[in-house]
Amino acid sequence: MTNGKDLYEQILECGPSLGTLHVVLSKLKQEGEWKRIVQECMKALNNHPQDIAIRQLLAEAYLETGFLTQAEAEWEKVTEQMNELASAYKHLATLYHRGKREEEAMKALHLYLAHRPDDQEAQQLLDELKILPEAQPVEAEPSVEAAPPVYEEAGREPVEEEVGDTAPPPGQKDTPEIATSTLAELYYAQGQTEEAIRTYEKVVAENPDDARARARLQELKAPTPPEAAVQRDKVRERKENMIALLEKWLSNIQEGLKDTMPA
After folding, report:
1. Distance between CA 51 and CA 73 in Å, rounded?
2. Is residue 29 within 8 Å of residue 37, measured between CB atoms?
3. How many H helices and E strands in the chain?
4. pLDDT-based confidence at residue 165 (cuts at 50, 70, 90)
5. Above pLDDT 90, what percent of the chain?
6. Residue 191 contacts residue 236 (beta carbons within 8 Å)
7. How far apart are CA 93 and CA 189, in angstroms?
8. How many other CB atoms are there within 10 angstroms of residue 123's CB atom?
9. Is this structure's pTM higher than 0.85?
10. Cα–Cα distance for residue pair 94/112, rounded to 1 Å
11. Domain 4-84: which topology?
12. What is the secondary structure of 134-190 as a DSSP string?
């Protein structure tokens, strides 16, 4: 069975989606793999330069590894992005005001003006809200939208998400609590079809609208024709032979290096 660290490595090598990358980086953070986080964040930002969560994690990783100058530069970029997005607070305050949710509108305006103190229009609206008669705030409907990935603040205990019964079957080692199509396909590529099916079942349970994952799950559950099973076994055997050959070459190379090193 592949251990957690090897799985993270294979997922990162496969060029995971942005959502999967956030999950893996969060796991690496919990394990204190700060140097690896720096490497992966730098690669990810080449393709996603505006991802503020990844840049924030990179700044934190630089700080943890002692690269204070780089950490300062990344935190400055984070604050610049936050300032660029600050207008969202003003738009939200306008919507709250139209919905007679004055207290929430004032909170949003305070946050906006912390970034844009020279906006006279926003300041005027805030002043008007302050002199309105106090009204009972309208409670918002609980949001059902999925929250964006958020990394835990430095120095705080990581919050474990409840993902149901994750106890492995008897005789099976623990696997990382990640259920993605990428991970399922890694299991399938290693010949662990049952593990791939279990992972896809979890993906479908958590994302009922994922038609591609559901179709792939049905495909894996379908009976395998005898000729296809034979062909799959041949492919697996060739892979195992190649791995054994590479390991033998590596051993020979290491032995050769030992012979060339001075005593």
Report:
1. 16
2. yes
3. 12, 0
4. very low
5. 6
6. yes
7. 50
8. 15
9. no
10. 12
11. 1.25.40
12. P-PPPPPPPP-SPPPP-PPPTTSPPPPPP-S--PPPTT-----S---HHHHHHHHHT
